[in-house]
Amino acid sequence: MTKIIIENIKTINDLLLFSSAYQEGKIILNITKIATHLNKDRKTVKKYLKGQVPKQTRQRIKYLDEHRRYIKEVLTDKYQSFDYMDHLFKYLKEERQITCSRSTLNRYIRSDEELNQLFNRKQTDSFTMRFETEPGYQAQFDIKEKIKLIDQHGNEIKAYIPTLTLSWSRYNHRILTIDTKVETLLSFLAASFEEIGGVPKELVIDNLKQFVEKPRYQDKAALLTTKFEEFCRDYNIKVKPCMPYRPQTKGETETQNKIVERLKNYNGKYEDIVAMHEKLEKINQEDNDSISQATKFPRVFLLEKEKGDLNPLPPKEIRVKYHLSLNEVYVSKESMISYQSNKYSVPKKFIGLKVGRLIVRDELHIYYNNKIITTHKITNHLLNIKKEHELIYPKLKTKTLENDHEMIIHEMRHIKYD
User: What pLDDT, in 10s, does the model give residues 95-143?
Assistant: First the structure.
C-alpha cells in the first residue's frame, strides 16, 4: 500500500486524502519511506496522516500595497530621480499622504525585488570630519552645480544651487540660479547675510574661479579675485579657501548638497521655473525646521541664538552695490515686458507687478524678488512668447491678413487668459 501511495502523491498535502483511512486503521503505511519520498520529517508526515494540518500563514495585506503602483510609476518616470530613501519617503508623504515610517517604506522597497531594482541608492557615503566652531564665527559656502530640472513641457534647465551654511547652528540659505557669474554669487552672499541678520567672522569656500585666482597650499595663502577681495573688505569677513583635493574641510555644505537632490524628484511635474523656486523654498524651510543630527536642535532655533554673535551688516549703501543691477519694468496686462521695442512674455501671475530685467550676452533674464522667473533669446521679432506662459489666442474669423506683423498685432488685441 505504501508503494501505491508514494506513486500517487507529490506534496505533503496529498496525504490528507488518506488521513481518514489511516486513522480508522484501514491502511498500514511505512512512515519512514513516505517521509524520505517527500523529504519531510517523520513527525510531520504523521501529523498530516492524523489530519493535524498546521494553520496556514495568512497572507497579510501590507499598508503600502495600495501605493505600490504609484511608487513604481515614480521610480520608472523618465524625468523623476530618487537617489536617497529619505527623498522618496518625503515625496510620498507630500504627494500621497502616507502615514507609515521611513523604516517601513525602506523594508517594503527592499523586500520587493522589482521595486528594489528600480530604486538606485547612492553608495558613496564617506566619512567627513566635523569642525565645531563658536556661534557667529564661521559660515561655509558651496554650489551644487548643474542640476538638470525639467518642467511639464519637457524644457530642461541646468540649475545651480548656491548654499550658505552657518557652522554652529547648521542653518542653511539656498537659492536657484541659472549661472555662476561672480555678480550672481556675490548677490547671493549679500542676500544671505541680510536674511540671517549679520555677517560671520570667517567664510570657508571652495577654490571657485569666480573667487580664487590661485588656490591655497600649505605654505602659501590663496590669491583672491579683485571683486571678491573687495566684497570681503566691505563685509569685514575673513576668507578661508579649502586646500585643493580636500573638500572635507567644508563638510557641512558638502553634506547639505544632497538635500537639494530632492528637486529632481519632481522633474516633469514643474509648471515652470517659478514652481522650481517655490519647491526649493519649501525644501529649505523643512530642512531648517528639522532637527540637525549634529546638534540635536532645530537649525532655525539655534539661528536665533547665533544672531547675537554675528558681526553687524555694513551700511545699506555698501550692501546695495552687490545686489543684481536690474532695470525694473512693469508687466503689461498682456503679460509682456518691452525691450528694444519688442515684447517678451512672462508667466501670467506677474501681470501688473514690477520685475527686473537683466541682459546677459544675447539673452534677456527676467527676475522677481531677485529670483529668475524666465529667460528669452533676444531677437528682432515683435513678439516673443513662450509656450509654457500659456497666452491663449482665439481663432481669427476675419479675412486673412496679408502682413504677419499685422496679424500678430491683431491677435494681441484679443488675447484671453484662463
Answer: 889 888 988 898 888 888 888 888 854 333 333 434 468 999 999 999 9
Q: CA-based angle 147:371:381, to the nearest 5? A: 90
Q: Report the Cα–Cα distance between both ends of the chain, in Å, rounded.
A: 84
Residues of the chain with CATH 3.30.420.10: 138-318
Q: How far apart are CA 174 and CA 276, in angstroms?
A: 12
Q: Using alpha carbons only, what angle is made at residue 404 by residues 399 and 405, rounded to the nearest 5 degrees?
A: 115
Please tell me the total number of residues recorded for the chain in this structure.
418
| Measured distance CA(160)–CA(157) in Å, rounded | 10
In degrees, rounded to 5, the angle at the alpha carbon of residue 106 between the alpha carbons of residues 64 and 109 is 60
Lowest mean pLDDT among 14-18, 263-267, 366-370: 14-18
DSSP 132: -
CB atoms within 10 A of CB 316: 8
Dig out the grid coordinates for 257 from the structure.
548638497
Return the number of other C-beta atoms located less than 10 Å from residue 211's C-beta. 24
Q: State which fold the 138-318 domain adopts.
A: Nucleotidyltransferase; domain 5 (3.30.420)
List pLDDT tens digits, range 36-61. Answer: 888 888 888 888 878 777 666 666 67
Q: Which residue has better confidence, 219 or 158? A: 158
pTM: 0.67
Looking up cell 481518514 gives 20
CA distance 366 to 355: 7
Q: Give the span between the Cα atoms of 36 and 32, in whole angstroms.
A: 6
One-letter amino acid at 261 equals E
Q: From CA 38, how far away is CA 376, in angstroms rounded?
A: 75
| β-strands 172-174, 138-150 pairing | unpaired
Confidence of residue 368 (pLDDT cuts 50, 70, 90): very high
Q: Cα torsion for 90, 91, 92, 96, to the nearest 10°?
A: 120
Q: Please tell me the distance from the alpha carbon of residue 365 to that of residue 239, in angstroms, as a whole number.
A: 31
Helices (H), 53-158: 68-76, 85-96, 102-111, 113-118
Please provide the DSSP assignment of 232-267 as one string: HHHHT-EEEEPPTT-GGGGHHHHHHGGGGGGGGGGT
Q: Which stretches of 179-240 are DSSP H helices?
A: 182-196, 226-235
Helix (H) or strand (E) holding 356: strand 354-360
